[in-house]
Amino acid sequence: MKKYIKEFFEKIILLVKSHTSLQTFKDIKIKSDFELGLRRAIKNKLEDCLLDGCYFHYCKAIWKIIKKLNLFKKRLRYNTIIIVFIMKVYPFIKDDKKENFYKKMETYCNNLVANYIKLINYFNKYWKNCDIFNFF
Questions:
Q1: H or E segment to which residue 50 belongs
Q2: pLDDT confidence bin for 131, thresholds 50/70/90
Q3: Could you tell me how far CA 8 lies from the centroid of its own chain?
Q4: How is residue 130 annotated by DSSP?
């Protein structure tokens, strides 16, 4: 199903691209939510654009993975709240301090149960090196 969603978005992007006079999308800012199919299609078909997302949808994605990994059970709740707070602060950390901040978060997660390791792996894959936040 995900493949078809990405292909659908790619067709729409190509249609839009065919109706513009722009030769390149370099420095063009595109705003979207965090729908992976759409984001992958944009990156595949409009490689030079700047992809921008919003903080609300970022936080929503974090909570979604927390629920999926079942990390809000009563016995895990305290650690989960700490990790969620750290993840919610992450976009506001200065770039030169992010790596150190991430290492501390990773160390904290690695000392907990296995699902926290899955959470940090998810964060690493989708958010760690992502510079796509728009707070407006």
A1: strand 50-54
A2: low
A3: 21
A4: -
